[in-house]
Input
Amino acid sequence: MSMTIATQSTDQGLILALSKGRIFEDTLPLLEAAGITVLENPETSRKLILPTNDPAVRVLIVRATDVPTYVQYGAADFGVAGKDVLLEHGGEGLYQPVDLNIASCRMSVAVNAGFDYASAVRQGARLRVATKFVNTARQHFASKGVHVDLIKLYGSMELAPLVGLSDAIVDVVSTGNTLRANNLVEVEKIMDISSRLVVNQAALKLKRARLQPIIEAFQKASTLQG
Ligand code: PRT
Ligand code: MG
Output
């Protein structure tokens, strides 16, 4: 046991978990502010572990919803994840020192353009709600005293009301273009969403010397940005 800890504390290498797409792109300037340049593009590289200009820092490319899991178990020391994803994960084992103000959007309720959501809620109808975000949706409707049947989906929530699978969806919205293109209307904002830096609690103690300057650089750069 003590062997493992001794090895970990002298091994100051860092692993950062990121998802491809908007989180990767929005995190690059923050990494640059910390003096870290990722040497390969995850959109074109088939590698799942990307090198950086710092031999001691590597980047894992994982699904957005898997970032908190990799960090929780210490397979990655730190990562970047949306508040939407963190609320579903629960945040266990994670230290969340900085709201990075990146990948911003909102969590909302949307329905078919013809559906009278306000009166359905007023009349106490039982709503069928399709979503990937079941914890957030359950909590939201419970706090309003609205009875819902939640239908768990893993993507393309916008389809559910169109084909009668549900009365409503709970999804993240940024421009609203996807809702409009599918004749859906945003009827309620549940919360604003942005992405946070998440750090493994044990790594924060054992690798503080390397992590702290990066956390501070992210903090400074995200404040300037936001
Ligand atoms: O795509 P994948 O299934 O792999 O996972 P993911 O959707 O969880 O990952 P990704 O990379 O798409 O999103 C990562 C994080 O970005 C999310 O956890 C959010 O915190 C944040 N984010 C910001 C968004 C959006 N904006 C967003 N617009 N995540 C998803 N979307 C979706 C939205 O649901 C809609 O279907 O993008 C579509 C377009 O949005 P509009 O409103 O601009 O049309
Ligand atoms: Mg996506």
